[in-house]
Design goal:
With 64 residues, the protein is mostly beta strands. It has one domain. The protein is built from 1 helix and 4 strands, in the order E-E-H-E-E. A two-stranded antiparallel ribbon has the order 1-2. Strands 3-4 form a two-stranded antiparallel sheet. The longest helix has 4 residues. It is extended, with a radius of gyration of 15 Å.
Length: 64
């Protein structure tokens, strides 16, 4: 990971020894999510590969 913004992770694939494939899934753990959360109706929390939490976003779309 080269950089991270509120909605995007930026990879420098040329600097990585891993050869990424089209469609390969990556997992990023965001460090700041307030504007991203506002764009969704619900949030799912995971621990490892297991979904362990589910929350409704009560303030969805209310930021002005």
């Amino acid at each position: 990971m080269e950089a991270m913004s509120e909605e995007h992770g930026h990879l420098n694939i040329q600097a990585s020894p891993h050869r990424f494939k089209i469609g390969e899934r990556l997992r990023f753990i965001p460090n700041h999510v307030c504007t991203t959360v506002n764009m969704h109706n619900e949030i799912w929390g995971a621990r490892g590969e297991d979904v362990v939490e589910h929350w409704k976003v009560d303030g969805r779309g209310l930021v002005r």
